Amino acid sequence: MFACAYLLINTLFAALYYVGGDTILHADPDSFWQAFVFSFQTSTTIGYGYYLPKNNFAHVVVILDSISGILFVAIATGLAFAKFSRPTARVMFSRNMIVTRMDDQPVLMFRMGNARNGQIIDANVKVVVTIPQITKEGQNIRRVYDLKLVRNNSPLFSIGWTVMHTIDADSPIFGFSESEISNRNITFVISLTGIDEVFSQTVYDRHIYQGDEIQWHKHFVDVIETDAKGNTVINYHNFHKWKDM
C-alpha cells in the first residue's frame, strides 16, 4: 500500500513536469517516463545525474516534490513503527468451557494460556453472558449480565490461568439446564486486559463461547508440568483436553 501511494505521488509530480513542457535538461519533453524518473530521483533525494531542472517552473516543482517525498517517508516510517511495535496479548483460550463440580458446587470454567514470550502484568478478565429474553410486553431482547468470578485479577499472568464462575443462587445462569444453555443462543463474552512488561503498554484480547461449546460434567486435563531444568511449563498438547468426572 505504501509503495503504491509513493508511486502515485511520483506520477502526479511527473505529470506536472510533463505538462510544463521543456522543463528537464537532457530529457525528451514528450517522454512521460523520463519525467517520472526525474520525479523519482527528486523525491528520494538520491541526487541528480543526467537529468536536471531547466527553468524556474521546474525548480518550484522540485522543491514541492522533495518536501512531499521527505514527509511521505517520515509518515510511512512512523506508521510502520507504530504498527509493529504495538504489543499484542496473544492469549490462547480453551476450545470449550466446562461445567464441573468443586467443593460440592457446580462451577463454570475455561482456560487461558499466555502464548507470549513475556508476562502480562496486572491482568484483568471479565466475563459477561448474553441471554435472550422476552419482556412483559412481548419484546425479544438480549440482556447482558456480569458473571462473578472466583478471581478476576492476576498480578502476573505468565503461564496459564483457569477462570472460574460458581453457579450459585446469585448466578445469572442458575437453574438453566444443559439443553437450555445449548439451545437458547446464550453467549459468553470474555475480555482480558493487562500491561505488557516490555513496552509498558496496555494489551487486550477477547473470546466468545456459544452455549453449545460447553462440556458438562467434565474436568480439564492437567497441563502444568516441570521440564528437565525444573521450570514450570504448560503442556499445550493437553490444553484443550477434558475428561469425564
Write the SSE topology.
Elements: H1 2-19, E1 24-25, H2 32-43, E2 52-53, H3 56-85, E3 91-93, E4 97-102, E5 105-114, E6 120-134, E7 140-146, E8 153-157, E9 160-166, H4 178-183, E10 187-196, E11 202-210, E12 214-216, E13 218-220, E14 224-226, E15 232-234, E16 242-244
Parallel strand pairs: 4-12
Antiparallel strand pairs: 1-2, 3-5, 4-5, 5-9, 6-7, 6-8, 6-10, 10-11, 13-16, 14-15
Description of the molecule:
With 245 residues, the chain is of the alpha+beta class. It has two domains: 2-85, Helix Hairpins (Orthogonal Bundle), CATH 1.10.287; 91-244, G protein-activated inward rectifier potassium channel 1 (Immunoglobulin-like, Sandwich), CATH 2.60.40.1400. The protein has helices spanning 2-19, 32-43, 56-85, 178-183; strands at residues 24-25, 52-53, 91-93, 97-102, 105-114, 120-134, 140-146, 153-157, 160-166, 187-196, 202-210, 214-216, 218-220, 224-226, 232-234, 242-244. Strands 3, 4, 5, 9 and 12 form a five-stranded mixed sheet that branches. Strands 6, 7, 8, 10 and 11 form a five-stranded antiparallel sheet that branches. Strand 10 and strand 11 (202-210) form a beta hairpin. Helix 1 packs across helix 2 and helix 1 packs antiparallel against helix 3 (56-85). The model has no long low-confidence stretch (mean pLDDT 87).
